[in-house]
Design goal:
By secondary structure, the protein is of the alpha+beta class. It has one domain: Histidine kinase-like ATPase, C-terminal domain (Heat Shock Protein 90, 2-Layer Sandwich), CATH 3.30.565. It is 34% helix and 28% strand. It is built from three helices and five strands; from the N terminus they run βααββαββ. The chain has a five-stranded antiparallel sheet, covered by helices on one side. A hairpin with a 4-residue loop joins β2 and β3 (75-82). It is globular. The relative contact order is 0.20.
Length: 135
């Protein structure tokens, strides 16, 4: 089975996090992904989108690109690209902190994940992979 992929360009705005979740849920239903896979991917996508709009220090008008690909190996790869070159870093949040756990969640819930500078321009891509069927 060849890879199937979709991409969305979204404004760098808090509302885009919810929009990305809704778009992904629609695509997951089309791909007939199991509910547990969809819910995990929605959570991780939310974390990456939130980081992209909150922490990317870029000129106004720059967008966030989301790409979701279902490979022939039945693995789901989701990537979020923004125009900031700064790579994400782990924080060590205290129990009282209300944020700072996003990359910890990605590490715990994704099969694998990573970051890379954009090959064709300014910015970076953060991605995660998860199997679409239970092992």
């Amino acid at each position: 089975m060849p890879e199937e992929a979709v991409e969305w360009q979204l404004p760098r705005h808090p509302r885009s996090v919810g929009r990305a979740r809704a778009l992904f849920r629609e695509q997951a239903a089309d791909w007939k992904l199991p509910d547990e896979v969809t819910e995990t991917a929605v959570l991780l996508l939310s974390e990456l989108m939130t980081n992209a709009y909150r922490h990317a220090h870029v000129p106004p008008g720059r967008e966030i690109r989301v790409r979701c690909a279902l490979g022939g190996d039945r693995r789901l790869r989701v990537s979020v690209t923004d125009a900031d070159d700064t790579m994400p870093t782990f924080r060590n949040p205290s129990a009282e902190d209300e944020s700072g756990r996003g990359l910890i969640l990605v590490t715990l819930l994704a099969e694998t994940w990573g970051t890379a500078p954009r090959a064709d321009g300014v910015g970076k891509t953060i991605w995660f992979v998860t199997p679409t069927v239970a092992p």
